[in-house]
Amino acid sequence: MGSNYLNKKKVCIVGGGQSGLVSLKRILESPFLTGTIIEQKDNIGGLWYYNGIKEFSASSRNMGKTLPDPENTTSMYDNLSCNGSYTLMEFLDYKYEEDVETYLAQSKVFEYMQGYAKHFNLWPNIQLNTSVVDIRPENPSAPEGEPGKWIVETHNLKTDTFSTEIYDAVMICVGKNSYPYQSPIEGQDTFQGKIFHTKYYKNSKDFKGKQIVLIGFGPSSADVLLQLSKTAEKVTACHRFPYGYQFGLLPENCRETKTVKLITKDGVVTEDDEVIPCDVIVLCTGYGLKFPFLNESCGVTVIKEKYVPHLYNLTIFTKKPTLAFLNLCYRSAEFIVVEIQARYFVSYLEGKTKLPSYEEMEAVLQAEEAEKVKKGLPYSLWFQIGDFFGIESWAHFWKLAEEIGIMGEYKGAPALEKIYGLLIGRLCGALAVYKQDKVKKINDNTWEIIMAASPLGKAERIVLTLNPDNTLTSTTEEVTEVAE
């Protein structure tokens, strides 16, 4: 066993969230690979690990000079529940129990990930309380496109010691929701109330009776609006109505209007010159991409904190293909996507999947980027596949699964796509009631979805049936009462 272990390729996995865990699981089941998760928190779970405390330990090597620092502050907050169905938040071979809620609480997702690590005996290969502080290629002068080994330096936060190890490959599994992103707004420094990014939001208790403005449109804005509506006097969501979308049905003390062009000492002014007084401004402006532990010699660049060039199939770094990035795609079914990405990279490391030449991969990427430029897309959308909801991302990753020979394992693929499309559409249009929707898997071929009633219509029951030819049949009927 010892000699066999020495012959295996060693993979460093940076981050112990869903991407890191499924990567480690897939690596350890390979006879040719072994791997280690390096996680700076004192537990696995990534974003989903939250015990009510916003701060955690991190290496000073990765931190800036401002407080609070995003490097050691979680983006999680109290009472968060998922904005996607549980059916889209599980891996292939480890499922939630049958009676689980449709929109899972943060604690439930964390329990799932703990169970996953225990079930597949991942803990012996997980190193906690350790920050990765530097990753650099062993041979920085190697030609572009040539695989190579990596020197990884870590900081043990318990012993305050540093160590270095060489790996055959590195997987960056730190996600995309750590570093607040916001373009400055004129007058922002003059505001006399409280202004902060959703990264630093904890709960709605401190905002009782307040008038609040949210700037931005997306999952964070939607969820924080629903929370604040329970305590605030008034909540106004200001955004650009991207592609004409809006939250639509809102709680009674909430409304939405055009985005903010000016911040004054006591409120905001919208693009329509509407003056909105407020006590609090919450910047729901998303997150930027930063990798402070990647040495310049890696050759990785980030354009405007939104786009990393040279990622073939959104995963493999073409310049040095033993480096992979997982979960950078926006608006997708993340648990499903990262498992396909992990298995794709593992298949490449095993030698089963062959990559095109460096020049061919770059040509593909350059053509894709030229198309994005032609469409006038900002860099913030370059990691998003297709329309605003990311519906087309399914076809991209199913194609990747087909390429590595695992598509047959996703027997319910058409139903998963349909559920994703139905529910994400409810977030834009029926925000006030969408988390009352229910999804239930009846059997391997049948799913039931109950769309909650709104003031404009009755509840609906949708039944999805997977046919023998892998097509999907959908039936819809109105229902007057929804059984619990």
UniProtKB/TrEMBL annotation:
Gene3D superfamilies: FAD/NAD(P)-binding domain. It comes from the Eukaryota. Keywords: FAD, Flavoprotein, Monooxygenase, NADP, Oxidoreductase. It holds the Pfam family FMO-like. It is an enzyme of class 1 (oxidoreductase). The keyword Endoplasmic reticulum does not apply. Its EC number is 1.-.-.-. InterPro entries: FAD/NAD-bd_sf (IPR036188), Flavin_mOase (IPR000960), Flavin_mOase-like (IPR020946), FMO-like (IPR050346). Its cofactor is FAD. The keyword NADP applies. Belongs to the FMO family. This is Flavin-containing monooxygenase.
